[in-house]
Specification:
Helices cover 51% and strands 17% of the residues. It has 7 helices and 6 strands; from the N terminus they run H-E-H-E-H-H-H-H-E-E-H-E-E. The strands form 2 sheets. Strands 3-4-6-5 form a 4-stranded antiparallel sheet, covered by helices on one side. A two-stranded antiparallel sheet has the order 1-2. By secondary structure, the protein is α+β, with helices and mostly antiparallel strands.
Length: 201
């Protein structure tokens, strides 16, 4: 299958049926500013406007619903505008939890990896109105877990972002332990769902 151009992705994603809370956009904006500065964020927004998807990312309200297609496009456009690699996108996902108001609230309750795993479907519903996460298996002795994303298909690069996010949020609740993540099944490669294996030590 021929790879989409960014414009083709924009035309497709702006019609995506499914929304994310503004908190997700806020995390994007904060990371871009931390890495590329205020001017970098403005450069990104200018490119988004050129693609026919104008957005003032910082002024999206935390609890406002906005298209997940636009959220995905912010990731894709960041890669083009800043010359990022997939590793940069992975790190964008990894550091996103650090900018999350919701996660800071969760931290007050000393959340554990088991609690995070068990309640992942509920956390997903708080931020997205489509798709779902299923906790499949957790093995505390082996220090690994498996989660699935079902009904979620925007772009392969978003899988990279999500993998980074899973690593970041796991390391957050594990108190600084190093976590690794691998996508073991992917909708964009013919699977019925995305599946991620996380392990830590």
């Amino acid at each position: 299958m021929e790879e989409e151009t960014l414009k083709q992705s924009a035309d497709r994603l702006k019609n995506f049926q499914g929304n994310a809370k503004g908190e997700v956009f806020r995390m994007h904006a904060q990371y871009i500013k931390s890495k590329e500065g205020e001017e970098g964020l403005k450069k990104l927004e200018k490119r988004m406007e050129e693609l026919g998807v104008p957005i003032d990312i910082e002024n999206v309200k935390p609890f406002e619903w906005k298209s997940e297609g636009i959220s995905a496009l912010i990731i894709l456009t960041s890669k083009e505008v800043f010359g990022w690699t997939k590793e940069d996108v992975f790190q964008m996902g990894r550091f996103a939890p650090r900018f999350s108001f919701v996660l800071k609230v969760m931290a007050q309750y000393l959340i554990s990896i088991e609690t995070l795993f068990k309640n992942s479907p509920k956390y997903w519903k708080k931020n997205y109105d489509f798709g779902k996460i299923e906790p499949i298996k957790i093995d505390m002795e082996k220090q690994e877990l498996i989660v699935r994303e079902i009904g979620i298909a925007t772009h392969p690069l978003v899988c990279v972002y999500h993998a980074g996010y899973f690593k970041g949020i796991s390391e957050f609740v594990l108190g600084g332990k190093e976590a690794t993540v691998k996508e073991t099944a992917c909708v964009h490669e013919g699977a019925d769902y995305h599946e991620f294996l996380l392990s830590w030590k």
